[in-house]
Write a structure and sequence with these properties.
Distance between the termini: 19 Å
Number of helices: 6
Strand content: 25-35%
Order of helices and strands: EEEEHHEEEEEHEEEHHHEEEEE
Largest sheet: 7 strands, antiparallel
Helix content: 10-25%
Structural class: alpha+beta
Amino acid sequence: MTHLAEQRATSAGVSLQCGSRTDVGRKRHENEDSLLASQPVFIVADGMGGLEAGQRASSAVIAEFRGCVGRTDVAAGDVVAAVERAHTSVRAVSDSTGRGAGSTLTGLVLIDHEDAPHWLIVNVGDSRVYRLHGGDFQQLTVDHSLAQELIEEGSLLKADVASFAHKNVITRAMGADNSSADYWLRPVVTGERLLVCSDGLSGELSDEAIKAGLTLGGSTQQTADALLAGALEHGGRDNVSVIVIDVIAGGVSSWHGVAIGDDHSDTIDTRTEDTRPVQRVARNAAR
């Protein structure tokens, strides 16, 4: 088990508090999750490939973002470049093993955009970013999964995902063909609380339970500890990684006249040209 200490950091005038945990869970023998929670980068990578390969894949993703740590001048292009390097690194890991390897990548990077601090949210796979502000609780990322595709086409109810036989099948993964990242740009808001997690948390706890855990109060580290404990108590069937971030100061309370509670996020197009067929990846197949 890895326990990363609570920290305070300021970037581009923003003061943050962060707590994080990662744990092997109660059923796995190895932790294939990796995380980086060091300002301005807060990301989780959930490796696939079994034992060493999965850990190598998730670690390869994290390694490509370490060059951004401690910087106050990270731009969107730096994040996109790190994602592309991570794809290449995971493909190299996959090519070195007969079983293949892959990883999710999800999280936030604090950047400057139009002279204001913003979160650049990135997602490949089914790890997630959530946001709590006041009583408003949102999932900011959209899963790249077979279940999500079926929900969007109306043939699967979200309430039935827990019992869906193919809930572990994802449609994009780091290192896989045609798996470009999705990016969203959102202003940093003073008072908001953000959660980055692997599906070891979201697969064990409902959205209502996650919201309750974020709302109970306590420091970011106490909250990360409590959420992880809840996932373990609920079964801990997968590795669990949790990052909780509070914006203490330096953010905005509204954006271009639109209340922060409204849906105002911008989706930015940074996709690379890739026309190879989408591969559906069974997350547990290589474990």
